Amino acid sequence: MPKPRPVKLSWLIRTGRLSEFSPTALISEKLGINWLMMFDEYVYGPGPGIVELLDLILRYVKPRSLLDLFGGSGALSMLAYIKGVKRITYIDLYPDAAILNLRGISEVEIIRGDAMDFSRFGVYDVVVADPPRELINKLLERVGDLRKIFRKICLIWIGGVEELEERLPLLRGKRMMEVIRAWGDCFTALWKPGFGDIIKHMKDLIEYG
After folding, report:
1. In CATH, what number is assigned to the domain containing residue 152?
2. What's the pTM?
3. Looking at the structure, do residues 76 and 133 belong to the same domain, yes or no?
4. 83 and 35 in one domain?
5. What was the pLDDT predicted at 2?
6. Could you tell me the CA-to-CA distances from 44 to 4, 89, 143, 152, 163 in Å, in that order?
7. Given 3-state DSSP classes, what are the helix, strand and coil percentages for the chain, each rounded to the nearest 5?
């Protein structure tokens, strides 16, 4: 199996592997993300749903610290940095693109490692997780552990809208948890007491405009 490698956004657009008008390209350019990770021929980049939701969280919560699990290109860490978060920890098994995108930014600590070992990285105001599809269920089974590592809000990508039904058994009965649909994807937001109104407001903004 070919080793995942970082590739330039400009090359992806020039070779037709990515449209310059795709959400991934537009978001990357807006955030100054010039490198993405390519696995075989599949390119991993920031999606509009998770970027918009995290942007709202950063605006309303104003966290001082953020943990970026399965950080990929580093786009979400970059967004947090732009919004003024002072302590950001990025974790991914393949951080090569993020190292290129985030170099020189002292507020971001990049860790090459397994994001499923999140319990050993401390506690943060906000946690955001964009796991590969094959790890979503495993991550949702550890909601109790996730609640121990954030003080305010945790946002997790849980797949496309068509996958929501199969995920619901893992979400039922959980307190302080809400499913939000955005841009064809689904997310679950966890929160600590005092932040439920923010989540409900975000859900209304995203789903009902």
Report:
1. 3.40.50.150
2. 0.96
3. yes
4. no
5. 66
6. 10, 19, 25, 28, 19
7. 40, 30, 30
